[in-house]
Design goal:
The complex is a heterodimer.
Chain A lengths: L2 H12 L8 H15 L3 H10 L1 H11 L10 H9 L10 E6 L5 H12 L6 E7 L2 H9 L1 E3 L5 H13 L5 H4 E4 L4 E4 L8 E4 L13 E6 L8 H13 L1 E9 L13 E3 L4 E3 L2
Chain B lengths: L5 E6 L3 H10 L9 E5 L9 H8 L3 E3 L11 E4 L5 E4 L5 E4 L11 H12 L3 E5 L8 H9 L3 E5 L8 H9 L4 E3 L1 H9 L3
Parallel strand pairs in B: 1-2, 1-7, 2-4, 3-4, 7-8, 8-9
Antiparallel strand pairs in B: 5-6
Helix pairs in contact in B: 3-4, 4-5
The chains are: A alpha/beta, B alpha/beta.
């Protein structure tokens, strides 16, 4: 059985549709699952039918869960000086699509806290994977493995002229080798399990800012267009969209946004 | 016209100066796409492509996801992304886990090129302090692509070329000047 057949069968038995993922990345991830479980595609499918937790782990291993605090610090500094300073004066709604364990959500919250804007913001993080969302809710992360988070944090604070320290936002427990995001940031965002591929929106309201960084890279053109159309419909005129540093809009949507190299703004 | 669809180059410690030299001495009419995956230090994440473009004879870009590979251009794996070649001749990116402690991973770029281009691909491993790239260049050799490993005696750090030589036998083992001559005589 080749990986494409596997994905079609997987979709039939689980409702998870990975058929339109970019081939290189998904085929290699599937190979890795076969190597690690020492199972064939046929065996994995058979077990998924009866063993839901196993199926959950396969979904987790197929999807990419990498996220970091203040990935690309200079991007955050630019956002601070541009996007954050031109947000509407009323309640601002943020949507982090594919938020994984929530580190970008908390990066955004730190920016908002620096601007004293936390109270007037609504923040939603969505992801396909319930396990990473439970980590996001707890706001707990390994410490020594992620030391560079602190470097990114310091680079951003320097860039925006803030004196805030890492320990203002995180409790650091060296014995447990753990950092934990502090209140009031902890508990502020709402995390929702949502399968983007279905093309439906996970909530009824519209959003002012969409963080959608390095998620679309895993989808092929057709799926990108379908999902972007849904995201577009959730944005107000002038709402902001932030993609990964090396991502671009599908061609069909380019004329509908104004771009400045750091973010896209929906044209009215 | 060359038979090759792409030159795929991997390197780590010491490879920046070498890639710069190589690009600056290419014939300006060199039109086979060059795909470069270099490890970079965490604190030097930007400015690399700009520095290469100052001296390169062909245009160097950090590609966006899904960008089509074009003749006469060099593509540099963007910092903190893995870079893959897809069957349809486009580049795809990923931020998944590091491979051999590296993102970008040279193995990922080279292996994907071996699948996409098969025997119509030249793979080159340069100086570096890591074994990343050894599996990738072996994959290119296994698909009958043309393989070159920098002569470890000429490498600033020889771990990467030596790791490659342990798992495969390249068509050529060359000095930096030898690699430049090889490329300029490919037509």
């Amino acid at each position: 059985m080749d990986f494409k057949t596997f994905l079609q069968e997987f979709k039939k038995i689980t409702d998870y549709d990975f058929c339109d993922y970019s081939e290189n990345s998904i085929s290699r991830r599937l190979q890795k699952i076969c190597d690690e479980t020492k199972m064939t595609f046929e065996e994995i499918l058979r077990r998924c039918v009866t063993d839901r937790p196993f199926m959950g782990r396969v979904v987790e291993d197929i999807t990419v869960n990498t996220t970091e605090l203040f990935r690309d610090p200079q991007v955050w500094v630019s956002l601070f000086n541009t996007l954050y300073k031109s947000l509407p004066k009323t309640t601002v709604t943020f949507w982090h699509i594919g938020c994984s364990v929530g580190l970008e959500v908390y990066s955004n919250l730190i920016m908002l806290s620096e601007l004293n804007m936390l109270d007037k913001c609504r923040i939603i993080g969505t992801d396909i994977n319930p396990r990473v969302l439970s980590v996001a809710k707890k706001g707990e992360y390994a410490y020594s493995f992620n030391k560079y988070f602190e470097d990114n944090f310091n680079a951003v604070m320097r860039g925006i002229g803030s004196k805030s320290k890492f320990s203002d936002y995180f409790d650091i427990d060296e014995k447990k080798d753990q950092i934990k995001i502090k209140p009031p940031l902890l508990g502020k965002p709402r995390f929702i399990c949502h399968n983007l591929v279905m093309g439906q929106s996970p909530f009824a309201y519209r959003v002012d800012v969409v963080f959608f960084r390095n998620v679309m890279i895993y989808f092929n053109d057709a799926l990108q267009r379908k999902i972007m159309a849904m995201v577009y419909s959730k944005m107000y005129d002038n709402s902001f969209l932030i993609l990964g540093k090396r991502e671009d809009l599908p061609k069909s949507l380019k004329s509908k946004f104004i771009s400045n190299n750091i973010f896209f703004q929906k044209a009215n | 016209m060359s038979d090759y669809k792409a030159i795929v180059i991997g390197g780590s410690a010491g490879s920046f100066a070498l890639v710069l030299k190589l690009l600056s001495r290419l014939s300006p009419s060199f039109d086979i796409p060059i795909i470069i995956c270099m490890h970079r230090l965490k604190h030097i994440r930007s400015g690399l492509v700009e520095s290469l473009n100052v001296k390169s004879k062909i245009k160097v870009v950090e590609p966006n996801d899904k960008e089509r590979i074009e003749k006469g251009k060099a593509y540099l794996a963007p910092s903190n992304y893995h870079m893959f070649i897809e069957f349809d001749g486009t580049i795809s990116l990923s931020i998944e886990d590091m491979n051999n402690h590296s993102r970008p991973s040279i193995d990922y770029t080279l292996s994907s090129a071996s699948v996409a281009f098969r025997d119509r691909c030249v793979g080159i491993i340069l100086t570096g302090a890591n074994k990343d790239g050894a599996k990738g260049i072996k994959d290119i050799a296994d698909k009958k692509g043309f393989t070159i490993v920098q002569d470890p005696a000429t490498a600033e750090v020889d771990t990467m070329p030596k790791s490659a030589l342990r798992v495969m036998k390249p068509n050529l083992i060359l000095s930096p000047d030898g690699i430049i001559d090889f490329l300029n005589n490919l037509k």
